[in-house]
Structures are given as C-alpha cells and as structure tokens.
C-alpha cells in the first residue's frame, strides 16, 4: 500500500455475487463473442453432491453476471483461451483438458477433440487379455495374479479396473471390454499456452500438455499435430504437478516443471529430457518462470517464498506468515514491473516485487484461485475465488504505486547523500542516468557545430544502411516460391495481357502446403513512374487455401510521348520492369520478390 491509499478498488454489485468452486488453472479470460468485451470463463466443479457423481460446468460471466453455462463431460484440469491462426476477424478457441483428451470449443460450441497418443503396453498384459475371454473362469485368478506382478502405474485403465472388481463382476467386465485396445494412456495434469512466433496482442499459440506419465507435449492446434515431445526426467515415478513456460515456439522456449516429489526440471527446445535444477524436501504449491530476468519462483508448504536461477542457485527466500495456497504473476507494462501475488491461508494476499513486499490486502477467508488480466473494458483486473465459492473482483487504480516498505529497506546503510542537513531537509541522490544526461546536454551546447555535423553524418549513414538492407532483402527474396519455413509455402506466377498502352497484369498465388492456410498476405507493385502508371499498387489478399489458386489482376498503363504517341526513347529493357512483391503483414522482408518484363507498347493513334 502506497501513501495510505489502496492500490486496488473493490467492485461492488447490487445482486448477490455468484458462487464458484474452481482452481486457478480452470479460469480464463476470452473474447468469446468477438465483440471486444473480455469475459470470464470458469469451470464450476461440483464434488459435494453424494447422490450424483462429480461433475463440472463451463460458465461464462459478463462482469459478475452469469450469461451462459455448458456441462462438461468430466472434471477438467485446465482451461485455456487461444488463437489458432491469423485470420481476420480473430476468433478465440477454448481448450478444456479432461482426462487424456483436450476438448476445443469455438463460439462455445464443440469444435474438435484431441486425444494424446497411447503408450506401449507390457507384453505380459497383452498376453493376459488375449487369454481371459477364451479360458475358463476358474483360471482367471492365476492370470490376475500375473497382472499384479506388473507395476500398477504401467497397467492400462481396464486392467486397473479389473483388479478392483469382485469375482462376480469380472466375467461381465471381461466380455464387455474383450475387444477394446489394451493401451496405456496418461491423463493430462497441466495445460498452458506458448506463443508461436511473437508476443504481440492475440498471436497464434500452441498448447503445452503435461501428463501423469511424465511426458511433455506441445500441440499445434491448427492441424492438431504434436510438434514437440519430451520427458520431465528419466525417472518413471516423476509426476508433474506444476508447470511454467516462457518464450516462443519458433525461436526458443523454456519449460520449468515441478514434480510431486519436490524436484524442479528445465526443458528447452533443443533437448527432449528435463535437466534437474534443484530439489526441495517439501512439496511446492506454486511455480513461476518470470519473463524478464528468467528467474524461477517457488512457494512451498513450509511457508517459504524462494527465488532460484536457472542453474539452481538460491538467490533469496522470504519466510511467509502462513501456508501459501497459490501464486500468480501480474505483468504491469504501464509501470514496467512484474509483481507476484501470493495468496496465504487465512485470507491474506501479498504482492512481491522481487524479494520486497510492496502491497497487501486481507479477505475474510482463504483464496483458492486467482486470475489477472483484461476483463470487460478494464486492463488490470484481479479476480479471486475463496474457499466458500465467493467471487471477488478488484481493479487496479490508475495512480497506483508499488514501492518496498520502509522497514524492508532499513537494513541498508545510508550513504553520504542520505545524511540529513541541519534544517531538516535531505540531500537527494541524483540518479546516474540523470547525471549522464546533464553532462551530455552541456557538452552539446559547447560544441554545437561539431555535434550537428556528426549528427548529419550518422543520419546519412543510417539512410545508406537502410537502403542497402532494403535492396538486399528484395534481392534475397527473388524467387517464385517463398522460402520462409515458418509459414505456408506460396508460389507466385504472372501473366501480361494486352498490346498497349493499357495492359492487364494477372498474378496467381498458389498455396503449396497440404494443411496450413496462408493468411494476411498482400501484393505490392512498383514501377518507374516515368514509363508506367498503376492505379492500384497495393492489394490485400484473402486467406489462400491449400490447392486452390487465387488470381488477382492489375491495370498497367504505359506512358507515351504526347507528340508522336510512341514510347519514349528512355524506355529500355532494364527499366521496363514491374517489380512484384508478395508481403506478409507485420514483416519487413517480402516472401517473394519478382520482376515482370513488360512488352513493348504499340502506338496510340
């Protein structure tokens, strides 16, 4: 809390606040209606109804009012909102991880179901299931005893279920599942998103999936292909419990995984098996990989908040007042900082900037789930769900300040600039950047002529470098087929029709990919203005589907001598070219750059 004024404004509602039983991983913010209004999506999990099996419902809130709900086929472990392509208008897809499957919803309607690949079963288990349907019932006990010799975690689900049944229930179960495959499929325990190329607003993303068998998958949701497969570690018993990821898939990324036995492992794009960073004696309740300094934050059940480097070195630790329930990163770009919110048992929520506590508020009961981001029309909204199911929303004040408390900095020695003067005032320490700026301003004032000349030289050098880079980018892209491996390969062909002075230039764009869609493309034409006139030099293309060519035409008019109505003498084969560049939105380098030689125009009599 800064200056006595709270940094967070509490949102009051006239109606009764909705009740919700959920986890932080089962909450997401999404523009599901594509109207610019961000709604809250949460899985309401029901576990207390003894008359019915545990169930879950996907609920959509506009503000704090429930607008829509949809039953889910199981208990989810995570919910994510992501974009799968760059097609405009962008429509988010909701991914819900349930058991071994990921359910995709578009416009809150079922869109696709993906199931993670099954693992190889033990040969002994396959042999037992081959014999069970054909042998007599009195020999089932011996076959089941052989199944018990296999590690329980390596058995398929139907074998695990068979070992739990009584002798009277075995025969119907065997007849029902005799033809079903004997596959060992892990359950998804963690799911999160990783940006594909850039970290801009609403870029296409991939899904990171962690299973209880220790496998880490990255799923490309546009074609539903696995683009990365790895393992947490070499131990079969290491089950992931927490996961955090930073980076982009196309460049480089880091995945930090915490297991139930306290080990923390690091996976990179270049390796498929995690490297142990550090191991704790107590289980973890929260794990974060911060984006800026790339440090690893962990909260443990022994009331500690710790920070480690990627090499496993303990940088600092803070002793908390009570048990940390969950932690959440709060990226505040307008302030240039990233806070970490830690919800403690008893209702306290503390905010840390590195090792210093910079804010705090206390609720009536313990917070079970937290979510931060843009909600509705507000950019910085913190949503909290308590143990009783109460949903609390707080909005960050526009003039909020987060500074370490005075007692946190009391251990530091005061420098000479902090000594108090006799009149009670304090000499403020001048920042280093301010000193450099003052010295530079004085130097430029004394040497104004030389400074201006140096500036002009550097400016012309910059222009020359930019022009050379532009020419190199165009020359390196001179081809009829794009060579950018991060996008769908595209082929460009041209055809000129007409005898002049008016020509019709036909360009055909063809997508050579078998599953990717080429989107956000545009064609740019450039010609010598002394010889040709083009009414439309830029054309934005719709999405190009695989195997379906797209044809675009342009009108090119050759300029003739006004006296004899003939082409000018300055028109040669070298400057009678129309440069065609196929661009992609957001990229400076063209995908394809080609030159079309225009035919000689006839006289206009």
TrEMBL record:
Q: Which residues form the signal peptide?
A: none
Single biological process term from Gene Ontology: non-motile cilium assembly
Query: Could you list the residue ranges forming a coiled coil in this record?
Result: none
Can you give the residue ranges of the Bardet-Biedl syndrome 1 N-terminal domain? 8-268
Q: Which GO terms describe its molecular function?
A: patched binding; smoothened binding
**Domain Bardet-Biedl syndrome 1 protein GAE per the UniProt entry, residue ranges:** 490-602
User: InterPro entries, alphabetically?
Assistant: BBS1, BBS1_N, GAE_BBS1, Quino_amine_DH_bsu
One GO CC annotation:
axoneme
PANTHER family according to UniProt: BARDET-BIEDL SYNDROME 1 PROTEIN
User: This protein is called what?
Assistant: Bardet-Biedl syndrome 1 protein homolog
Whichever gene encodes this chain, its name is BBS1
